[in-house]
Amino acid sequence: MSFTAFAVAVASMMTEMLLLLLLLLVVVVVVVVVVVVVVVVMVEMVVMVVVEEEVMVVMVVVTVAVEVVPVGGVYLLTITLEG
User: What is the pTM of this model?
Assistant: First the structure.
């Protein structure tokens, strides 16, 4: 086997390896981007749910505060949960 043929074989192998590495890099980047997008969407959904729950709690507190009625010095507390 001559040196030229050996050099060509090594160069083609290195080219294949570089192409495989490039393909692997592209796949890894795509997977990372997809994972980041999914995590961001899930976090936004959780934040929205938490904010909605906090708003509901605030509304319930306001309702309770409105419905604490003093009757002859005795405070009546009525709690109604309207859905």
Answer: 0.45
